[in-house]
UniProtKB/TrEMBL annotation:
This is Uncharacterized protein. Keywords: Signal. Residues 31-119 form the Rhamnogalacturonan I lyase beta-sheet domain. Residues 1-25 form the signal peptide.
Amino acid sequence: MNLRRGVLLPLVFTAVLAGQLPASAHPTPGERLDRGLVAASVDGGVHLSWRLLGREATGATATGLSGPGFAVYRDGKRIATVTDSTTYLDTGATPGARYQVAPVRRGVPLGRSKPVTPWAASHHDLPLRKPADGVTPAGERYTYSANDVSVGDVDGDGRYEYVVKWDPSNSKDVSQVGYTGPVYLDTYRLDGTLLHRIDLGVNIRAGAHYTQFLVYDFDGDGRAELMTKTAPGTRDGRERFVTMPHEDVRAGYRHTDDYRLSPEGYRDHLVGVFRGWTSHPEVVAGRWPATLEQAFGIEQRYAYPLSTEDATALVDHFIDVYAPSRSANNKLRQFAGFIVDGPEYLTVFDGATGRELQTVRYEPGRTDDGLMWGDYAMSRIEPGNRVDRFLSGVAYLDGKRPSAIFARGYYTRSTVATYDWDGRRLRKRWLADSGWVPMTNPFRDSPHGRDGTNPSHAKLTTQGSHSLSVADVDGDGKQEIVYGGATLDDNGSLSYSSVGVLPPGSVEPGAEARVGHGDALHVTDIDPNRPGLEIYMVHEGARSAPYGYALRDARTGATIYGAYSGMDTGRGMIGDVRPDVPGLETWSSMPNGSDSGGTWSADGRRLDTRSPGTNMSIRWAGDLTTQIVTGAQDVTPAVEDWRRGTLLTATGTRTNNGTKGNPSLVADVFGDWREELVVRTQDSTALRFYLSTEPTNHKMYTLMHDRQYRVDVARQQTTYNQPSYPGFYLASDVDWSRVPLPSHRLAGS
């Protein structure tokens, strides 16, 4: 990765064949992780927890997977041998003791792990360096808090580093007006060493929908890279601006540009749009009204093409008369802080140094301020909304190497681009694009639910979620992209777009309609008695959607069960919260006590009128059941078990993203197979890592060595954070003989 900075390499479109890849691009059985040993002081001694690596698992037992036993050492002396798990409680602990573990084969201990000393409690604080406060162009002050976290081994030492997104206090949803402070991406070691800081600059707006950052070893060299959307003004980890294309420099773009719109700037922007009305391709083609007066439903007033004076008069009419007539919430005189112009880039950074490796154009570009995307068509006029809905993820599209996914749009036009990084050059693998959604009048229409203009992907529109999932849904060894209600095959073709029949009480009973957009998406083996994987998703289409929630077959997209809600069903979750019932349970934010609310079994039986929380799940307990992380806004987070109550109260910490209540990360980042809870301290001076110290007799390899789980962790940071799931059934009633062994599965790949 010793690229010279300042060279913008061309973006090459290619379908990379396995035989053409460099040797470093072919995956080993999971990341090259170390033993991940941690020690925590608890009542009764010191709790030790460590990894069983994927390649070490050899078969199944009644309670877990077989593999090496482990010798446990305190201060160099062997004190125990553990065979049925990868945890141990040292009841004879001494102050300041140093612990190691070593796998035992044929009675002989092999290489010992690096020594560790116990944490003072069951959590560890990683010190953070909070960015300085700032002031917007409108004179508003803002502060910073730690937000989403992703992980990767950026230096190849077998231990994860942690990439922290810093969000300003004026971070915005895409529907909210106002300036935001810039977003920063920091990379830390677990001891708090700051490796570098990337400053995305003023031309990347702050908010959950804008910055999607991927941390992954894309080229197979054992060190993770970082990819994210950038713009003029972005500085890499060495505080150098990213490379602008020569044509952008020649066009006059500069890193000192500030594309954030003031209310006056937005008015001027619209004047330019209106002056060019007669030359807009949709007007020229006769698909849109020939004049703006026709579009607004008023008498003809001006000659076309419009002069600046006449365009200004029509802009004032649009802002002050037409827009408020559509909705009282259309207060476009207050429109500020949005970025609807200027170059957009995608940059690969070296994970260890933050150095820019390559910058290319972000595809597709915005084209306009949302006019073509339907942002002016609905009664609520929201420029810069649908056009700036971004998602990201990682997928093994060829079954061998990871590809990056960057998506734009899911209400109307929907696009998904995939890329391969070989250590030198970013190559576009494919771009799936629904095409524009036709409108008869961009200022008064209902574009949701219509086909796009690209025949091959026309039905991708309106199906996307506020997240995406990646899974091998057809069992061919290659991963597909579950884009909410639709799924893209590994080659970018549209596998299916799920539909249903609108029931009584809907907008058009008996008509077929897309299942549609939703806020929560979960993909794994939910019902072990059915072949393959399942998808559980909630939908916000209200009376225009056939379901408020639905469980679907991941291979075909067919609905297994679901229920109409007639409302925006905004939350949904799955998990093993009833270990007495086979499979994972499902539940959503349907009103508890209603006919379709409550908790449901994997085979569609209603189990309870009540349901657990829906913000985030976690594998915390030792019995393989699922727990829920609660706490949103200014409420202390907790780990709750639906049967047993509160298992952990994370005093002094907070979750993120308002009512979403997302931890910074939930993932198996060290220790045994269970997930750690990573949350920010209340003042964001540290990330706090909570370790489950509950006893377990289950032996399982680290979940990070399951391919689907690992890419789900990389995806967890995107927009509305969703849990990470393995590509197989894992719950309290798991049949261990059916758990795939990474060493066996990948040996022939």
